[in-house]
Amino acid sequence: MDNRLLGALGEQTAGRYLREHGYTICASNYKTAVGELDIVAQKDDTLCIVEVKTRQTGGFLPPSAAVDARKQENMRNCAAAYVAETKTKRNVRFDIVEVLVENGKVTDVRHLENAF
Q1: Residue 100 to residues 15, 38, 82, 109: CA-CA distances in angstroms?
Q2: What is the three-class DSSP state of 27?
Q3: What is the pTM of this model?
Q4: Measuring CA to CA, which residue among 104, 85, 9, 103 is closest to residue 40?
Q5: How far are the Cα atoms of 58, 92, 93, 100, 106 from residue 46, in angstroms, in the given order?
Q6: Mean pLDDT, 10 residues at a time, the chain of 116 residues
Q7: For the chain, what are the domain ranges?
Q8: What is the distance of C-alpha 110 from the center of its chain?
Q9: Which member of 12, 47, 108, 111 lies 3.0 to 4.6 Å from 100 by CB, making a disulfide possible if both were Cys?
Q10: Residue in 39, 32, 49 with CA at minimum distance from that of residue 91
Q11: What sign does the dihedral 25-76-112-87 (CA atoms) show?
């Protein structure tokens, strides 16, 4: 499975997972001048900025390890743009959803709330 298809599968899976767990999806692939947010979701009074990391099983590091300091800073900047544009007053939290895939099928989904 190529990376584009793998990423699309991961984002669809993460969106479904979040909805099943009581989140409302506000935006997907939200583009700003400084980058893109995979998913913006809301639950109760919290706005969740969600990075989706999808990997084939068998790696040494968890998918969330790819969300380094530079990626976190980019997400903060994109989130600030989203908050400014939508004028939301909600608390903002940064989450990661890890999606593991084997032979084209999702084997595990892990939601890391307040990841950084």
Answers
A1: 14, 17, 28, 6
A2: strand
A3: 0.94
A4: 85
A5: 34, 6, 7, 26, 28
A6: 90 98 98 95 97 91 95 97 94 97 95 97
A7: 3-112
A8: 11
A9: 108
A10: 49
A11: negative
